[in-house]
Design a protein that fits this description.
The complex is a heterodimer. By secondary structure, chain A is α+β, with helices and mostly antiparallel strands. Chain A is 22% helix and 35% strand. By secondary structure, chain B is of the alpha/beta class. Chain B has one domain: Rossmann fold, CATH 3.40.50.300. The chains are: A alpha+beta, B alpha/beta. Chains A and B meet through helix 1, strand 1, helix 2, strand 2 and strand 6 of A and strand 3, helix 5, helix 6 and helix 7 of B.
Chain lengths: 121, 266
């Protein structure tokens, strides 16, 4: 539901990341890492992003979203495993004190730019 | 005191999205990589919400300097947040200097109800017609401008009714509380795990209705503990104020700890 706000933030960061000396370029791709526990729906984010970049310097840019699994570590027994459902107890010792190692990410990794006159397949 | 504050964010709606595949390439360590296709990849490595997180940290620093305990109260619409806060304020307002920021998409109805307690209330409307689904840190920063922070020990933020988005946005709070009511499904914690992971305590509200419902209370508590083992669950009725003591004691303890922390750091 808040994907538009996130899309606008991505656009801002991507625009700021274009090197000032890059010349006349367009952004072809934005690489994101989104954890499965983040409150973001990738398809909604793409929908909002495509709408928000229309008639902007980022028009035509595509989001590449790498979904990251929810990985937890047990603070009691040090076990580490991937969580696939809404159960947050240790698989090994049944403990409840977990550290979430990944799954909460909402990161912009890189942008890919091309010269405007170049045609890139 | 009653302040009527509006923040609006323009929204856009449009067409489809599409998927793209990722091509691999080698990095030369400069942060810019030229790929086979001729495209240049520029390393960014930033959290998308880092601006919100920075603003939240600024809010937190300010609240800590003033010794204010900030509570972010979240729930689905209709779980009884406002009634719970009305009753909470009526019990503590005489002993704890409190203030409330209340977020809704539209109307000032909740602020009107909470203002009856006599504490300062700031209403935030994210839009008159279909605005943001959560409160972000910059909105809180603006809203506290309408409050005298030297006169406050407890700031309660009643977030927009929504179990998804508010969990993603740090506003600079000390603790998060989720309100769940027994007229909702027992499995809500499993359906909205992030919210129940991110909150420190849960209030299970409307327990006065249990005799009239087929609600399996233990099942709901089990779901909460499946998602967040050890999470304190206070069973309350905002209508009858049944079960309020442990909740109020928890709140009182938190406010005291925060105020003492300020004295220690001073």
């Amino acid at each position: 539901m808040h994907e538009m706000g996130i899309a606008l933030q991505i656009i801002e960061i991507a625009t700021d990341s274009i090197p000032p000396d890059a010349g006349d370029v367009r952004v072809e791709k934005i690489n994101l890492k989104i954890g499965k526990l983040a409150a973001v729906v990738p398809d909604s984010l793409r929908f909002c992003f495509d709408a928000a970049v229309k008639d902007s310097p980022l028009e035509g840019a595509k989001l590449f979203i790498q979904a990251l699994p929810v990985v937890a570590r047990c603070r009691d027994c040090d076990a580490q495993w991937t969580i696939n459902g809404p159960a947050f107890t240790c698989e090994n010792c049944n403990g409840g004190s977990l550290e979430i190692l990944s799954g909460r990410e909402l990161d912009i990794e890189s942008i890919e730019i091309v010269q405007k006159d170049e045609h890139v397949s | 005191m009653f302040l009527d504050t509006f923040f609006r964010i323009q929204k856009y709606y449009h067409h489809d999205g599409s998927r793209h595949s990722h091509s691999h390439s080698d990095s030369n360590g400069s942060g810019i990589t030229t790929k086979k296709s001729g495209a240049r990849e520029i390393k960014v490595v930033r959290r998308v919400l880092d601006i919100n997180e920075k603003m939240a940290d600024q809010n937190r620093t300010l609240f800590t300097a003033k010794g204010i305990f900030v509570l972010n109260v979240m729930s689905s619409p209709g779980s009884g947040k406002t009634t719970t806060l009305e009753k909470t304020l009526s019990q503590i307002a005489s002993e704890i200097n409190s203030a409330v920021i209340v977020g809704d998409i539209c109307t000032t109805n909740d602020a009107d109800r909470l203002a009856v307690s006599g504490v300062p209330v700031v209403q935030i409307n994210t839009d008159e017609f279909g605005g943001d689904c959560h409160l972000a840190a910059h909105v809180i920063e603006k809203a506290v401008g309408g409050l005298d922070l030297d006169d406050i020990d407890l700031l309660i933020v009643e977030n927009v009714g929504n179990l998804v988005c508010p969990a993603e946005f740090d506003i600079g709070e000390d603790a998060r509380v989720v309100v769940l009511s027994v007229t909702e499904g027992e499995d809500k914690p499993a359906k909205y795990p992030l919210m129940f992971r991110e909150c420190e305590v849960a209030l299970l509200n409307k327990v006065d209705l249990l005799p009239y419902l087929d609600y399996d209370k233990q099942k709901a508590i089990d779901f909460i503990h499946q998602v967040h083992p050890g999470m304190p669950v206070f069973e309350i009725s905002a209508k009858t104020e049944e079960g309020f003591k442990p909740w109020i004691d928890w709140l009182r303890g938190k406010v005291k700890d925060k105020a003492e922390g300020k004295e220690h750091s001073a």
